[in-house]
Design a protein that fits this description.
- With about 375 residues, this protein is an alpha/beta fold.
- The protein has one domain: Alpha-Beta Barrel (TIM Barrel), CATH 3.20.20.70.
- It has 14 helices and ten strands.
- The strands form two sheets. Strands 1, 2, 3, 6, 7, 8, 9 and 10 form an eight-stranded parallel sheet that branches.
- Helix 1 packs across helix 2 and helix 3 packs across helix 11.
- The longest helix is centred in the middle third of the chain and has 21 residues.
- Bound molecules: iron/sulfur cluster.
- The site of iron/sulfur cluster has 12 residues, from loops.
Length: about 375
């Protein structure tokens, strides 16, 4: 008699696709060493066994003004509240130069849903930044969540808006702001933000415009395992659709954990073990995204254990106010962080900040 977990394991080893029942069986019954083994097997379809890559990056939070009111967010301030800010171009340049001075390769912008900013404001900013920095730095210009808000605010379709961003030199609109892509979850925690299909409509427009994008996921709020699975299922189906279309596809999946400090939602942070098991599940279940990224930003050195659970890439972060406000700590002792990878048999290599290997032609 073959048990559900044996059936699931056999499927991974044969390179067959897992269904929800397989995922449940692995999550509930597989021990850590089996999950590690299966994730490592699935990882080897795309990457040499001891290879791990990273970039040094900062997330610059250009404004904390936000009208979305997500209950899991410790960062935002509602318009008019004390302590709001919107960084000027000069202030941004100062911050970017400081990141570049300590070896930063990639700057990701992430801000709130500012009611006074439209698509033209962002395009002007990105145009000026690209003119100033050329190819010396890479940018994740914005997230899908910001893209959706600003497109609606400017009364532009996602297709029109993506075309304008492309014309302004934008290269990346990452999948950030996804948290858990499940409508029941979204209704509980951020009802004003967007619905799941809307998110994918926006991401489709971004990829069709020739911009790069990524998958993201955050665990550890109060989501059920079924809601996590809904997220992974929909993500995998979307990537299937992209591959079938022959157009741009998601180049990576980054998963991190919710930080509960100073938020309205509160709660407790998930354990490292749960995070690592979840990474393994991402690797074996989402079989069509080649790069799985582990989050040093939210798990520090422990994130590097994720390389043994299917991850192949990570960031060395230098700042991010959003997660730091909610309890994340950042170490600039990069060598100590990298040693955590070396100790478990990986040889971390700094990579180009441009799209991760294999998907260059598509981003
Ligand atoms: S998570 Fe983002 S969209 Fe939600 S309140 Fe915070 S800044 Fe606004």
């Amino acid at each position: 008699m073959v048990t559900p977990v044996q059936r699931a394991a056999d499927r991974v080893l044969r390179g067959a696709r897992l269904d929800r029942e397989d995922a449940r069986a692995l999550w509930e019954e597989a021990d850590d060493s089996l999950l590690q083994r299966l994730a490592t097997h699935a990882r080897a379809r795309f990457h040499p066994p001891d290879r791990a890559t990273y970039v040094v990056m900062a997330i610059l939070n250009y404004t904390n003004v936000c009208v979305a009111r997500c209950d899991y967010c410790a960062f935002y301030k509602f318009p008019g509240q004390e302590g709001t800010y919107l960084l000027s171009f000069e202030e941004l340049v100062k911050r970017i130069d400081a990141v570049a001075a300590i070896g930063g390769q990639l700057i990701g912008f992430n801000g709130g849903f500012h009611p006074d900013l439209g698509v033209d404001d962002y395009c002007t900013l990105f145009g000026r930044l690209h003119e100033r920095y050329g190819e010396s730095l890479a940018f994740y210009e914005m997230t899908i969540a910001e893209f959706m808000f600003v497109s609606k605010r400017s009364r532009l379709s996602y297709v029109e808006s993506a075309a304008r961003f492309k014309a302004a030199g934008t290269r990346w609109i990452t999948g950030g702001g996804a948290e858990i892509l499940d409508d029941a979850f979204r209704l509980r925690h951020s009802p004003g933000k967007y619905k799941v299909e809307d998110y994918y409509d926006a991401q489709r427009a971004v990829l069709d415009a020739g911009l790069g994008s990524t998958g993201t996921m955050v665990i550890g709020f109060d989501e059920s395992f079924e809601e996590r699975l809904n997220h992974l299922d929909r993500l995998r189906a979307f990537q299937d659709e992209r591959i079938a279309s022959g157009g741009g596809r998601l180049s990576s999946l980054l998963c991190w954990t919710y930080k509960p400090w100073n938020t309205e939602l509160g709660g407790q942070e998930v354990s490292t073990r749960e995070y690592l098991r979840h990474l393994a599940l991402c690797r074996v279940y989402v079989d069509n995204i080649r790069n799985l990224r582990t989050s040093v930003l939210t798990r520090n050195e422990a994130a590097l254990q994720g390389l043994a659970y299917g991850a192949n890439d990570f960031d060395l972060p230098t700042e991010d106010e959003v997660t730091q406000k909610a309890g994340a700590t950042i170490s600039l002792e990069f060598e100590a962080v990298l040693d955590a990878a070396r100790k478990i048999g990986f040889a971390p290599q700094q990579r180009s900040p441009w799209p991760i290997g294999g998907d260059e032609a598509r981003a």
